[in-house]
Design brief:
The protein is mainly β and 773 residues long.
């Protein structure tokens, strides 16, 4: 292990903020051979990150950041701008404003070494009519020109990906062995079953030899034929057959625990000794150890986390890596090195490391991510030389290596070379398999392709990303390299998952939007249209905002907190939003966007204030699955509560995935109901939803009226005899329940059906998720 006394003086990392809550300074203590430094971020008049400078040798990490009138990032200068001798790098972004889509069309990178400018990257993007990337063309001067081509099925799942040196080849329909061309060539085909499970992956080399991986699931026999309905864990792959032609060269057998988390994978070649990989997990379902046993012996990798679930220490067979006070320390048992990563907004733009160098204050490297924030271009700040890393669509390394001193690769997250896993927030991900090792605790029944809870990004990894392991999103929505300008947050902040609709194309013809949505303010929600097969993504952001508010806020009052929090956090250019009118944005009037924004602002409270919480007092009784009663304040992750889907009547035991504490709720409603034992009161915050059979919908406690009925655990109803509203400063509690997102809270001795919190986003507004499974 690392001896902290020898490499770190136990000083703390300090942060300073301005009046708008932007991080303005970060002070790092000396550690691992890196001197102490203070890094300063300056912002433009609109609150967007501009320059990033340091007291360490008066370094300039980012000298200038440019944006256009749509708030899109258009360029960065890495290193100090100069006249004469010096070294820096420039990156520019271009967009298509000719057809209303405003999509990214190109990314270019150049280096300037003593005024000798060299083109390092010239990538252009082509899209289909659904807004999906179909071609990524690389044409930098002095490099081999090549295209990556992507094809999709009618569910937007990736079906083919290949490289070719000829421009425009992606439009051809035939796939031949000549497709394997260019730098790090590949040719891969994917198939899926009806539930969204990845069913086969076929890699074909330039000689035409195909390497096939067949994924078999419960309910399928070894020939891949469906034989058994209603098999347990239908999305957990149980066997993987590796084939060359018709010959099986290796068989992987996979087992899981009762929660569907992978426990063991036995890789048995056709001849020879099997390799066994065993996984253990913490009580919060985080990866604890990976033990790999081969004929030559066993190797063990261990993981340790802080109280907020962030990876703190990783011990591999060759080294130990620890994060201390903003600096990553590594030791092989003899030597200790240090690495710091520097961010502008949410983008990692540079790193400094003592590994592999004797230079004073370490080696500085400028880092540039792709549209999904995966580490792509690295430029040596001393020499101007650069490297490029390429990935397969599902995140495996294709070519190039990461800069010395960092493991931040796919999505900018940790790549553990000792296990082959990428650590994507809450879950461990295997980019070779294209699957997570554990199920998604936040799966949504309204997104059918997400019902396969081990799948990655709806099997659309080119256009979507999942950096938290909890929610698929477009780079536009969740910290992509190109369009996210949120200020950096302290590392202890819990992740906020976002989903503002299913498209990023901003504008569309008025008649298209009218035909799609109409003027009816009771138009269907996204979920209803998806179920009916009428939902079309990529129409316009205004349309997606409208649909999003209807889905999350305008229907039954549930999700209002999350809607407000997400809109305020990720679309907080309120001055721009409030300036929209029928003249400046005719399409907004056509889809009711203006009215919905006003509605959201009204429901969300004053700008900049937290959204209303929904919870119960800690002493509130909850009906457990075994029939007992437990105070909500005593419930722990892993406990089982009784849950009911009121629309189907299905009632069963469900696991608690998270417990939530709100420290300062003050708006409460007391509901007095008539029970068999007499009148009894249940107290909730104003915005907690109850199921009302008389209204046949969920209703916030503050909107419930005398005479309405509520559902009990036996399926009967009780009548609300009295309602009182009051204010008090009190700590409150809530739960996140697996699968059926409900539970029962007692009024006297009678359990009453209430809704849970279904999204991790509600950690905003002073909420603290104390435990997450």
């Amino acid at each position: 292990m690392i001896s902290t006394e020898a490499v770190w003086d136990r000083s703390l990392a300090w942060r300073a903020y301005d009046a708008a809550d932007h991080v303005t300074k970060v002070t790092y203590p000396a550690a691992g051979g890196l001197a102490a430094e203070t890094v300063t971020t300056t912002y433009d008049t609109y609150g967007r990150p501009d320059r990033l400078t340091s007291t360490l040798g008066t370094a300039v990490y980012i000298d200038d950041t440019a944006y256009d009138s749509y708030d899109r990032l258009t360029g960065r200068t890495y290193g100090a701008d100069f006249d004469g001798n010096g070294i820096n790098a420039q990156r520019t972004y271009s967009y298509d404003d000719s057809n209303g889509t405003r999509r990214l069309t190109s990314i270019a990178t150049t280096t300037n070494v003593n005024e000798l400018i060299t083109e390092k990257q010239k990538d252009t993007y082509t899209y289909d009519l659904a807004g999906r990337i179909t071609e990524l063309r690389e044409e930098a001067t002095g490099q081999t020109a090549q295209s990556q081509c992507f094809r999709y099925d009618d569910q937007s799942r990736l079906t083919r990906a290949f490289t070719h040196t000829t421009a425009g080849i992606c439009a051809n329909t035939a796939q031949t062995t000549t497709n394997n061309q260019g730098t790090a060539p590949y040719q891969t085909a994917y198939t899926y079953d009806r539930m969204g499970n990845l069913q086969s992956v076929t890699d074909t080399d330039s000689a035409g030899t195909a390497a096939l991986r067949d994924y078999l699931y419960p309910g399928y026999d070894d020939a891949g034929t469906w034989t058994t309905a209603n098999a347990n864990w239908p999305h957990g792959v149980r066997k993987i057959l590796h084939k060359t032609g018709s010959t099986t060269t290796r068989t992987d057998t996979v087992t899981y625990d009762d929660d569907g988390t992978m426990l063991k994978r036995i890789e048995q070649p056709a001849t020879g000794t099997a390799t066994t990989v065993e996984y253990t997990w913490t009580k919060l379902a985080q990866l604890a150890t990976v033990k790999t046993t081969k004929a030559s012996g066993s190797e063990l990798t261990r993981y340790a986390y802080d109280a907020d679930g962030n990876l703190l220490v990783r011990t591999t067979p060759s080294e130990t890596i620890a994060s201390l006070a903003g600096t990553e320390l590594r030791t092989d048992g003899t030597n200790v090195t240090a690495t710091r990563h520097y961010t502008s907004g949410t983008a990692t733009v540079a790193m400094r490391t003592t590994e592999g160098t004797t230079a004073t204050n370490g080696k500085l490297t400028y880092l540039m991510g792709d549209t999904q924030a995966s580490t792509q271009i690295a430029v040596d700040a001393t020499t101007g030389t650069s490297t490029r890393r390429r990935y397969t669509p599902f995140g495996d390394e294709r070519s190039g290596t990461l800069p010395t001193g960092t493991d931040n690769g796919f999505l900018g997250k940790t790549e553990d070379t000792s296990t082959g896993l990428s650590l994507l927030g809450a879950r461990a991900y295997d980019p070779n398999l294209g699957r997570f090792l554990s199920p998604d605790p936040l799966s949504s029944p309204y997104k059918p392709q997400n019902l396969s809870s081990y799948s990655y990004s709806y099997n659309n990894p080119v256009n979507l990303m999942d950096p938290t392991g909890l929610e698929n999103c477009y780079p536009f929505d969740c910290a992509g390299e190109v369009t996210d300008f949120d200020e950096p947050k302290p590392p202890t902040d819990p992740p906020v998952v976002t989903d503002l609709g299913d498209g990023t194309a901003p504008s569309a013809p008025t008649d298209l939007v009218n035909n799609y949505l109409g003027d009816d303010q009771d138009a269907p929600t996204v979920g209803q249209m998806q179920a009916a097969g009428t939902y079309m993504p990529h129409v316009s952001p205004e349309l997606n905002y409208e649909l999003y508010f209807r889905e999350r806020c305008g229907r039954d009052g549930m999700g209002t907190d999350m809607t407000c929090a997400n809109f305020r956090k990720h679309y907080d250019n309120w001055a721009h939003v409030k300036s929209i009118d029928a003249d400046s944005c005719p399409i907004c009037g056509n889809i009711g966007f203006l009215a919905i924004v006003e509605y959201a602002l009204g429901r969300g409270g004053k700008l900049g204030r937290p959204c209303p919480p929904n919870s119960f007092l800690p002493e509130a009784g909850v009906r457990m699955a075994d029939g007992s009663v437990k105070e909500i304040g005593d419930i722990e992750v892993g406990d089982k509560v009784l849950a009911t889907d009121p629309e189907t009547g299905k009632t069963e035991a469900r696991t608690v995935l998270a417990t939530i504490i709100t420290m300062e709720d003050k708006d409460f409603t007391g509901l007095t109901v008539k029970t068999s034992d007499g009148d009894a009161e249940i107290i909730a915050t104003d915005h907690h939803p109850f199921w009302s059979p008389s209204a046949d919908t969920w209703i916030d406690a503050g909107d419930i009226e005398q005479g309405m009925t509520l559902r009990t655990d036996t399926g009967t109803t009780v009548t609300v005899n009295a309602v009182r509203s009051f204010q008090d400063q009190a700590e409150t509690r809530n739960l996140t329940v697996d699968g059926i997102h409900t539970y029962y809270v007692l009024a006297g001795a009678t359990p009453i059906l209430v809704h849970n919190i279904t999204q991790v986003e509600l950690v905003v507004s002073a909420r603290v998720i104390t435990k997450v499974r």
